[in-house]
């Protein structure tokens, strides 16, 4: 029960931080905020401080920031609509940026390494006594040592040195080991030269502390790029009517993933939290009406046309796509529930 509560609070907190990004940017640019709410109405509690009502609401499914002029066109000088376009763009992007900022902070604070997630029996890795959970710090061939930061670093070294001995510097718990292994030149199908699967996981810091922000930035950028290329590949396959391998996950599925990550320990959970933040950021920035990316698209069109998109057109498109997203979420949630039970 404790893990379930923590997972729920974490998932809700992620959405609250997103809306808090909008809130801070709006306040910074002098936009009046009528309400900052946690959960959705009906309202359980509310307190007005200045011009803003801070509320706690019954349905714990997210959070919201209510600003005049965000939906309707108004002449109120303190409304969202009357602010300069670049300020409105910053306010819209602030929520997405908050997700990236969360990930950056976590990846800076917790060193991540390339870990072995699975070792197949009777393979070079198994015979060399490599184990799931081993973190690969570096790899050397004929004394030429290369530090490992990305999964592709390991894959490239293995593929470039098939049939040659590779010395892997392994972190196993509190131990630091050097293990020699020779990748197969012609491995069986679906096994790979070593017979291992790789994933990212917590590791010991093997670089100076002052480099932590830079490493955190690199890791955040790497995962963001991987998400973009992964989605692009899935879209390409869908256009070609090929299996995409993509499996949509809704709130229930994400909640169960949070719970599973918690069982692996606090560091693993925080890394998972950072990765989920990036996925949500990338989804939110898609140019779909009812998402931040859709609002951004309308603002870009306004900047090009020198006049705003028709309020009616924007509202109709936003409502239509919001309804489609709700239907999609219901469909995915049903699939998640069936999968769980």
Short overview:
50% of the residues lie in helices and 21% in strands. It has helices at residues 2-28, 85-109, 124-127, 151-160, 212-239, 251-263, 266-284, 292-305, 311-340, and strands at residues 35-49, 52-66, 112-119, 135-141, 144-147, 166-172, 175-181, 196-202.
Molecular structure report:
The chain is of the alpha+beta class and 341 residues long. The radius of gyration is 24 Å and the shape is elongated. The protein is 50% helix and 21% strand. The model has no long low-confidence stretch (mean pLDDT 86). The protein has 2 domains: 2-32 and 67-109 and 268-340, no CATH class; 112-206, Pdz3 Domain, CATH 2.30.42. Strands 3, 4, 5, 6, 7 and 8 form a 6-stranded antiparallel beta sheet that branches. A two-stranded antiparallel ribbon has the order 1-2. Helix 2 runs antiparallel to helix 7 (266-284) and helix 6 (251-263) packs antiparallel against helix 7. The chain has helices at 2-28, 85-109, 124-127, 151-160, 212-239, 251-263, 266-284, 292-305, 311-340; strands at residues 35-49, 52-66, 112-119, 135-141, 144-147, 166-172, 175-181, 196-202. The chain is built from 9 helices and 8 strands.
Number of domains: 2
User: What profile does the largest beta sheet have?
Assistant: 6 strands, antiparallel
Quickly give the structural class.
Answer: alpha+beta
Total beta-strand segments: 8
Question: Beta-strand percentage?
Answer: 15-25%
Tally of separate helices? 9
Overall radius of gyration: 24 Å
Query: How much helix is in the residues?
Result: 40-55%
Order of helices and strands: HEEHEHEEHEEEHHHHH
Distance between the termini: 18 Å
Q: How does the overall form come out from the CA principal axes?
A: elongated
What is the residue-averaged pLDDT? 86
Low-confidence stretches: none
């Amino acid at each position: 029960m404790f893990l379930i509560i923590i997972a729920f609070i974490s998932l809700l907190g992620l959405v609250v931080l997103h809306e808090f990004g909008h809130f801070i940017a709006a306040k910074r640019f002098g936009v009046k905020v009528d309400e900052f709410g946690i959960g959705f109405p009906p309202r359980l509690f509310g307190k007005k401080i200045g011009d803003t009502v801070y509320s706690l609401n019954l349905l714990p499914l997210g959070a919201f920031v209510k600003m005049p002029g965000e939906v309707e066109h108004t002449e109120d000088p303190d409304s969202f609509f009357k602010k300069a376009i670049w300020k409105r763009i910053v306010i819209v992007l602030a929520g997405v940026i908050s997700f990236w900022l969360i990930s950056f902070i976590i990846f800076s604070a917790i060193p991540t390494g390339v870990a072995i997630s699975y070792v197949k029996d009777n393979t070079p890795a198994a015979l060399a006594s490599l184990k799931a959970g081993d973190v690969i710090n570096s790899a050397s061939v004929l004394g030429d040592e290369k530090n490992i930061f990305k999964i592709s670093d390991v894959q490239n070294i293995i593929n470039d040195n098939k049939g040659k001995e590779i010395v892997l510097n392994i972190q196993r718990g509190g131990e630091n080991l050097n293990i020699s292994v020779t990748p197969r030149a012609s491995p069986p199908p679906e096994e790979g030269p070593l017979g291992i699967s790789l994933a990212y996981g917590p590791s010991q810091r093997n670089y100076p502390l002052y480099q932590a922000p830079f490493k955190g930035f690199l890791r955040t950028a790497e995962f963001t790029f991987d998400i973009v290329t992964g989605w692009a590949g899935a879209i390409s396959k869908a256009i070609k009517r090929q299996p995409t391998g993509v499996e949509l996950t809704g709130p229930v599925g994400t909640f169960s993933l949070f719970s599973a990550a918690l069982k692996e320990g606090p560091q693993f959970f925080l890394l998972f939290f950072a990765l989920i933040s990036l996925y949500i950021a990338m989804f939110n920035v898609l140019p779909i009406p009812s998402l931040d990316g859709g609002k951004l698209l309308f603002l870009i069109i306004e900047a090009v046309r020198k006049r705003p998109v028709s309020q009616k057109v924007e509202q109709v498109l936003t409502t239509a796509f919001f309804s489609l997203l709700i239907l999609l979420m219901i469909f995915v949630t049903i699939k998640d529930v069936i999968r769980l039970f």
